Amino acid sequence: xxxxxxxxxxxxxxxxxxxxxxxxxxxxxxxxxxxxxxxxxxxxxxxxxxxxxxxxxxxxxxxxxxxxxxxxxxxxxxxxxxxxxxxxxxxxxxxxxxxxxxxxxxxxxxxxxxxxxxxxxxxxxxxxxxxxxxxxxxxxxxxxxxxxxxxxxxxxxxxxxxxxxxxxxxxxxxxxxxxxxxxxxxxxxxxxxxxxxxxxxxxxxxxxxxxxxxxxxxxxxxxxxxxxxxxxxxxxxxxxx
Length: 241
Hints:
By secondary structure, this protein is α/β, with parallel strands linked by helices.
């Protein structure tokens, strides 16, 4: 399964907010054997969101979109996604009920605050979409065709992803080794490892820790194990404490 990640937000592009959502999602998906093929940040612009959701939907098994949900002027993600699939926005019954309950619960706990929520607007999702309720927050997400739309607030995004995580799986497996050999001394050995066993090999230096991390990825568990055994005989292995 190959997936693209599309993170939405002017604050991400300006550097005001670190894109921790993309890093967390990529890690979770990779752990499930999913190939993360694209990670892209786009502004809060409907046309741009539509363009990339449509393109990624056609090119990959799934696209996960995060950020820009809600009713403030810069929250245009849901409309952009709806346009990508030529669907109108319309109130979703499940989303409406969940929002009503969330608002009522908030009012009970904070009666001194006069909150004004456009419930119909908040509950508007692309026609025919599957609503994803927002347990820690207010704005719902959804699944429309092969696009998964999640909130940008990390706590809410993580909770919503967990509700659909079982729908993501793949055959990519990985192994990790650590070596104190200099990266320049590893080039020929790593190239031969890749050619001999048909696996991908990456080298990631960590000067502060004083070692290099070697990551081997592939879809054949036996070939990965053979590659690791072969590599162990040819590099200086560092045992992490």
